[in-house]
């Protein structure tokens, strides 16, 4: 049941992106978790751009946000 609840929550988070169909199925739950924790947010309010490359600055921000989550 916990896994079903997590899948429903993941779908709700992912559904706001118009390019959600481009997200690999295996990555959706992890992406949803990273979004819910504030580590990533997408390229805009409705675009995630899963095929785009992250800049060094974007990667640094994600690493800092992850670090802040664990410390």
Plain-language structure description:
- The chain is mostly helical and 71 residues long.
- 52% of the residues lie in helices and 0% in strands.
- It contains 3 helices and no strands.
- The longest helix is centred in the last third of the chain and has 15 residues, at 56-70.
- The N and C termini lie far apart (30 Å).
How do the strands and helices of this protein lay out in sequence?
Blueprint: H1 2-14, H2 28-36, H3 56-70
Helix pairs in contact: 1-2
Rg, Å, rounded: 13 Å
Low-confidence parts: none
Q: How would you name the oligomeric state of the polypeptide chains in this document? A: single chain
Measured between the Cα atoms of the first and last residue, the distance is 30 Å
Which series of helices and strands comes N to C?
HHH
How many helix segments? Answer: 3
Q: Main sheet?
A: none
Task: Please state the average pLDDT score.
Answer: 93
Give the overall silhouette.
Answer: globular
The share of residues in helices is 40-55%
Structural class comes to: mainly alpha
Give the total of beta strands. 0
Question: How large is the share of residues in beta strands?
Answer: under 5%
List keywords for this structure.
single chain, 71 residues, mainly alpha, 3 helices, 52% helix, globular
Summarize it:
With 71 residues, the protein is mostly helical. It contains three helices and no strands. It has helices at residues 2-14, 28-36, 56-70.
């Amino acid at each position: 049941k916990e896994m079903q609840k997590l899948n429903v929550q993941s779908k709700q988070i992912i559904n706001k992106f118009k390019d959600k169909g481009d997200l690999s199925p295996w990555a959706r739950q992890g992406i949803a978790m990273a979004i819910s924790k504030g580590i990533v947010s997408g390229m805009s309010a409705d675009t995630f751009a899963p095929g785009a490359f992250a800049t060094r600055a974007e990667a640094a921000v994600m690493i800092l946000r992850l670090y802040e989550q664990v410390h």
